[in-house]
Each structure stands twice: as C-alpha cells, then as structure tokens.
Amino acid sequence: MAKFLFTMLPANDLGLPTRLVPIARALLDRGHDVAAFNPAPAPAKLIADAGLKNLPMPSRPVPDFSPDFAQVGLAWDVEHLFGAAFGNEEFVRATTALHVDLLGDFDPDVVVDSFGLFACLAARILQVPVVSVLQGNFHPASDGFLWWKGERPAALPSVAPFINKVAAERGVRPVARSVDLLAGDLSLIVGTPETDPVAAGAGVTYIGPIVWQRGDATLPSWVAALGRDRPLIWVYSGNPRYAGAPTAVDSIVVIRAAIAALGDAPVEVVLTTGYQDLPEEFGALPSNFHHAPYLPGRAMAERSDLMVHHGGHSSVMTGLSAGTPAVIIPTFTERESNARRLAALGAGEIVLPVDGAGGEKLIDVAEFGAKVDRVLDDPGYLRCARQVAESMRKFGGAEEAADRVERFALSKAQPVASD
Fold first, then answer.
1. Could you list the residue range(s) of the whole structural domain that residue 73 is in?
2. On the chain, which terminus has fewer CB atoms closer than 10 Å, C or N?
3. What confidence tens digit (pLDDT) does each residue in 33-51 have?
4. Cα(311)–Cα(332) distance, rounded to whole angstroms?
C-alpha cells in the first residue's frame, strides 16, 4: 500500500478540499495510508466529515503578511495572483520551510496537490512525486483568468524571484514562472475540455467533475418538506468575509443580492455558507429563506431549480454535474472565468458586481432579479445544463482519479532495472 498526502492552498473555503477529499477517501477505502493538510476552519470540518486524517500545522513561525486582496481580485492569471498573495520574501522562505517540515515528517510516497504552491516547491526540494488536481485555469498551459481580453499585460507581479531564491538555497533548479510548479508529474484536470480548456499538448488528463458528498448523505427533512409548487433556489455564498474588514474578494454581495431580490418573493430560498457563520448584519432572514451552514452539495443541486453562487469552480461543477442552471455573481477574476465558461455553454447567466466605496462589491439588484426570472422561465437554460451533465458522465470523476493516482504511485515504487 502507498502513502499519500493531499495538500492545497490552505484558504478558508471549500472549493479545493471538495475536489481532493473524494479522491483521498477512495484511496483510504482501498487500504492506503492517507492524510490531508488544511488547518483552515471550514476545510478542516469537511475533511473531518469525510473521516480523513488532517495533519496539524507544523510548529514553525511564519511572519505576518497580508495578501493584496485588491490585486488578488483583479489577477490576470495564477502568476499574478501568487504575486499579489505572496509578495514577501521572508513569508515565502518560512512557508516553504513549514511545508518541508510537513512532508518530511509524514514522508509520503506521493503528494496529491491542488493549488498548493509551497507544498509543490517542498515536494520538489524533497524529491517527492506530485500529482496535481487542478481546474483548467489554474494549470500553467491555460490562457489565464481573463482569457477573453487578449494579450496578457507585461510586468504584472510575480513571486517567481522569491521562489527561485529559496529554490537556489535548497539546491533546486529555478522556474520561469511560479505557476509552473503546479503542473505535477501527473496532471489531472477537474472538468471537461469544454468547461476547462488548456493548450493542446499540455499532457493533462480530464477526469470530469468531482463533488464531495458522503455516501450516506441525505438532505434534512425541512428541505424535503419544502413544497414543489414554488421554485427552489439554492444560494451559496462560500466565505462571506475573508478578513475583519471588507476586501475585494468577499462573497457577502451574493447574500445581499439574494435577500434584496428574492426576499418574500414567490420562491423558496435555501442559503448555505460552506461552514461559515452568517454575518450578523443580516439579522432575521426573510420568511422564504432557510439557512444552513452546510448541506450535501450534489443532493442540494439536484433538488434545486436554480443555483445562485459566487462562481467558484467547485460550485460550477456541482451545478453542472446535476444539470442545474445557475445565476452567478463572480466575486473576482478567477470566478468570472468559471462563470463565463458556464454561460458560454448556455447553462446560466452572469451578473457582474462593481467595486463600491471601501472595497465593498455592489450589484444591480434589478438586473440580478431579472436574470433569475429569465433562467427560471426559459427552459433552454435547463436543457443546456442537462446536456452538459450528460456529457460529463463519460468521465470517471473521483474513482478514475484514484485509479490514476494509485497506478502512478505503483510506477514510482517499482525499482529501476539494473544493466
């Protein structure tokens, strides 16, 4: 049996663990030694719910450093995002050392990673093979987040100089771009060529949608009791606030828009926040709103007539795999990329927020309400969403990913024949 460590950017969101946990659980069920690493509160709950071991944070100090959320929200691509998020040399050095400690202590045969820059660098330092599990616009061979805008601007921020300085200190060859570290020895793309295109010849394998849901998961009785005489809209915000003060990437705008447009309307609204607290500003919700911190995603999508969400890739995959159309309020450029791909497939609409004073996102409530009505009333959106769902069924999802990860580990374990 092999030993696998699942790593990811430790953001307090469910998107990355949602795609990794099903693969990890499948490998654990096959008898492998499996652990994950994401100490953020919401992912830690998802990992625990799956019955997986979540490694503790190594006891190594890391300097305080706050991302430039404005630049993160505007990022052209992964390279720009990393430059905005990690633009501090000492933070890069300390976080790399932390991940070297993590991998060294667990001693995995293979690292299975999604968007964990420092885990990938640590794996290269320790010569541990890496399987990457990425959405298309995270892969080095993608056209970035703003692919519809043409040529990438020059001189955007990059963390590559810091990465290469640390790499040189560790005896590792430099990289042209930090994003190049994300392409593993085996690269698996969550989604399909239609939802997640990358450049031809990139050497990737598409595995279709991956959505975490326990095998025995069911919707609570109060959801089942909601009448079917009115449309059911599932509003998913993810993390409403990423910091104590408003930032350019917060998803609270999704909740505000839903309450303003749908409160007391002739629809039922189920609001979930991905194990996040509902901000106190909302007080008592409208009578047709029903809040839960977390519900099984696939089951909720299948029960819903429409999804409203922030454009996260896992939210897009959840809706499309269930054949449920969406209205998306993308809260930064990566999510706008996902939203535009979905809209191009005819499976939903986009409402773009604008930046208000103090970094708060604002939305045209009338436009949002009109697009909700349009998607509910026009059967073409549902038809397109179901067509995409049908096309996705030819991909193997988490089980195929586990098969490929397992075979990869076996190939790396076999001794090299001598002359």
1. 3-209+395-413
2. C
3. 999 999 999 999 999 999 9
4. 9
